[in-house]
Amino acid sequence: MNGRPGLAPAGVPPAHRTVLRSRDGTGHVLLDWAPAPGTAGYLVLRSDHYEGPYAPLYRGPVLPPYADTHAEPGRGYWYRIAPRTAEGPEPPLPGPVRGCALAPGSAPAGVRVRIDAGAPHHPAHLTGDGARALVTATATARHGTVEVRVVNAAADRPCAVPVPVLGRRVTVEVAGLEPGACYRMRAAGDTGPEALAHTGPDGLVRTTLDLPMPGSRTLRLARDRTRPAPAKEDPGP
User: Are 141 and 216 in contact (CB under 8 A)?
Assistant: First the structure.
C-alpha cells in the first residue's frame, strides 16, 4: 500500500476534524471549536433530540465562538456543526453535544475585559459568562488617552430587539498606564462629571460598566496633566 498510514490519497482532501464543545451560560449556550484551515464558516444546527432532526440556528455561516441566545433556560438541546468551504456546504460533523441555558440570577452575569494600554493593538483579554461569544472589546491609545469600546451582541439577535436577560456587568481593567498618575475617566453617554482614577504602582485602572443586550459602551481615559506625576524615588547610592 502506498503512502503513510492516516494520510489521505493524493488529490483527496483530508477529513475535517474538530471537536465541538458546549458550556451552559446565563441566557445562552456557548459553543466553541477550532475551525479547520480553508473553512469559510460553519452552520450551527440544533435539535431537541440526540437523533434529530437538526435545523440551522442562523441563516449564514459563523466562526467560533457562537452563543445560542434563543435557548430556553432549563431546557436541554443537542448541537452539531456543518462546515462550509469554497465548494459549498458539507455534511454535519459527527458527535453532537448537549447544552442548557441557565436562568438569570439576582445580578447581571459578569465579564472581565483587560486591556494593555502599552500594546492596544493586541487583542483584549476577555473572561466570564458570555465573553467573546457575546461580549467583545477593542482599544485605541494615543498621546496619553485610551479608549476602550465594549460591545454586547449576538449573531442570532436583531440589533433592535433588547434582551434584558442577556445584559452583562463588565469589569474593564486598563493596564500599562503611568504608575501613580491621575486619569480623567468617563463612559460615553454619562452626563455626570468625569471621574478621577489614580493608578497604583502597577499602573492599573479598574471600573465597571452595565452593558445591555444589544448595546455598546466606550470608556475614555485621559491623563490629567494638571496634576503632576509623582516624583520617582531615589534608589540611593
Answer: no
CA–CA gap between residue 169 and residue 147 (Å, rounded) = 18
The three-class DSSP label of residue 67 is strand
All residues at 6 or more sequence positions from 167 whose CB lies less than 8 Å from its CB, including other chains:
108, 109, 152, 210, 211, 212, 213, 215
> Is residue 229's pLDDT more than 70?
no
Q: Three-state DSSP class for 198?
A: strand
Task: Please give the Cα distance from 34 to 20 (Å, whole number).
Answer: 8
Q: Concatenated DSSP letters for 109-168?
A: EEEEEEEETT-TTSPPEEEETTBTTTEEEEEEEETTEEEEEEEE--TTS-TT---GGG-E
CB 79 within 8 A of CB 29: yes
For the entire predicted model, the pTM comes to 0.84
- 138-163 confidence digits (pLDDT tens): 999 988 899 999 999 998 888 888 99
Are 99 and 31 spatial neighbours (Cβ–Cβ below 8 Å)?
yes
Q: Say if strands 76-85 and 41-47 run parallel, antiparallel, or are unpaired.
A: antiparallel
